[in-house]
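Chain A, query sequence.
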Amino acid sequence: MILLDNTVLSNFALADEIHLLEEFCRGTGATTVKVVAEFDAGVTQGLFNPPDFNWLKILDFENEIEKSMFARLNQRLGAGEASCLTLAILRKYDFLSDDMMVRKMAYREGVRISGSIGVLIALIEMERITLATGNNVLLNFIRHGYFSPTDKLDEFL
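Chain A, predicted structure.
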């Protein structure tokens, strides 16, 4: 399972490229009810159109251990990030986030972590998109406020 937090969903939604996340996840995409609530707030604010998330499994906590870890993480992180990190740690899921603090915490916990740029690079390597398309999508992310360490994916390939 690949968990997506709101930072990654929002980047792809703002760039009108949600279909690329679906292509990347290939039937294994998931998020949490907390992330959906955050994303829906962006839709309500008119930041992006409501996408079709039929391909995305929506998860919630199943036991007290998950609820307890979420409560602890939610003291330092937003609800969406804390819920995804909780499930990634406890259920051993992969995780996509662009939040640097969340990524560091996930890494320390042994969670396989990537983000929006990693998705684009993987899609290029899988020959689902071209390098030129990936660079255009990245520039679109940046135009919509994404803080990127680079403006071209070339150096990663």
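Helices lie at 6-14, 18-25, 33-44, 64-73, 79-91, 100-108, 116-125, 131-143. The chain is about 55% helix and 10% strand.
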